Amino acid sequence: MSSSDDIHTRVTAPGGVPAMTAQGTPAAQPGAAAQPAAFASVDEVAARFLAHSYVCDRRTATAIHLAERLQKPILVEGPAGVGKTELAKTLAAVLGTELVRLQCYEGLDEGKALYEWEYGKQLLYTQILRDKIGEVLSGTSTLSEAVDRIGQQATAFFSEKFLLDRPLLTAIRAPHRVVLLIDEVDRAEQEFEAFLLEVLSDFQVSVPELGTLRARFPPMVILTSNNVRELSDALKRRCLHLFFDYPSAERELEIVRLRAPEAARGLSEAVVRVVQGVRTLDLKKKPSVSETLDWVRALTILSTDQLTPALAEETLNLILKYEGDIERAKDKLPELLAGKKA
């Protein structure tokens, strides 16, 4: 691809909002291959996620179904380890496509998220083509003339050959629909959030040397937040919103049985019962669902089919990461194992 002309343009209404059909779905993009809907109904979303061992409740399945039809991002907020990132991974698996992940952090800027020029490669080519550069400058007598002559060759060094795609541009330029995961967006600064809003509004970016690059197949976008900071109303308004909390005992047990089917039924029930009780304690960090799964799998590796008080105490570090939390949970273990409230 040598220029931005090779990328099809999205249909947009005034103000950069995707044009809609009379039925309220995004209008087709001229010149782009038709992209059939991935899900016929909310029930199909839930069923296909369940086939990939992801328990998807009705509200989540509805959000996914609507996000695809409306071409809107989904913002998933909630504590760490409750399945937000896994939602995006499973969506990519269900759709049979790639997951493009942008991990946010303090100090993340446009260059790391969008694109960079490979300056090292440009310098290497300059050295290799040193003799050719001499020919280009032949006949110039002043510095100004030399600069002008070199400037005429700038497009050779600021072309596709030297463009390094970062996650956002990778998702925008994908030859088919992908799932774009913008993970822990709350860890990035507000300035980056504003830039992100601009990109997500119409899935296009401007590269001064190449022009405007537009998505032929807009990605399905999942943003996650651990509520480290409050996100802007503008970003929330742009997205469909979900909140994932720690699951109920029934749902957590269903997750454990799906993800760790090798575990004995009684063991899974005991682990979930203890974890649910531990979360009611005054802890620095509550155990996540992923840590529940780690505990069940570890106990299975230890060839046990029941959670004894001694074994529970020895392996509490699988779900609790602070010594103070472990000591607090140890004091309550007899009650929790007996199914009593802590």
Quick overview of this protein structure:
With 342 residues, the chain is α/β, with parallel strands linked by helices.
Question: Which strands sit side by side, in order, in the main sheet?
Answer: 2-5-8-1-9
Helical/strand content category: alpha/beta
In DSSP terms (H or I, runs of 4 or more residues), the helix count works out at 16
CATH topology of the largest domain: Rossmann fold
CATH architecture of the largest domain: 3-Layer(aba) Sandwich
- The CATH top-level class label of the largest domain: Alpha Beta
Mean pLDDT across every amino acid position: 82
Polypeptide structure, described:
This protein is an alpha/beta fold and 342 residues long. The chain has three domains: 8-109 and 175-206 and 219-243, 3-Layer(aba) Sandwich (Rossmann fold), CATH 3.40.50.300; 115-161, no CATH class; 249-337. Helix content is 45%, strand content 11%. It has a five-stranded parallel β-sheet. A two-stranded antiparallel ribbon has the order 3-4. A two-stranded antiparallel ribbon has the order 6-7. The longest helix is centred in the last third of the chain and has 15 residues, at 323-337. The chain is elongated. It starts with 41 loop residues before the first helix and ends in a 5-residue tail after the last helix.
List the helices and strands and how they pair.
Blueprint: H1 42-51, H2 58-70, E1 74-77, H3 84-95, E2 99-103, H4 110-113, E3 115-117, H5 119-128, H6 130-136, H7 143-151, H8 154-157, E4 163-165, H9 167-172, E5 179-183, H10 190-202, E6 204-207, E7 211-214, E8 220-225, H11 233-238, E9 240-243, H12 249-259, H13 265-278, H14 289-301, H15 309-314, H16 323-337
Parallel strand pairs: 1-8, 1-9, 2-5, 5-8
Antiparallel strand pairs: 3-4, 6-7
Helix pairs in contact: 1-2, 12-13, 13-14, 13-16
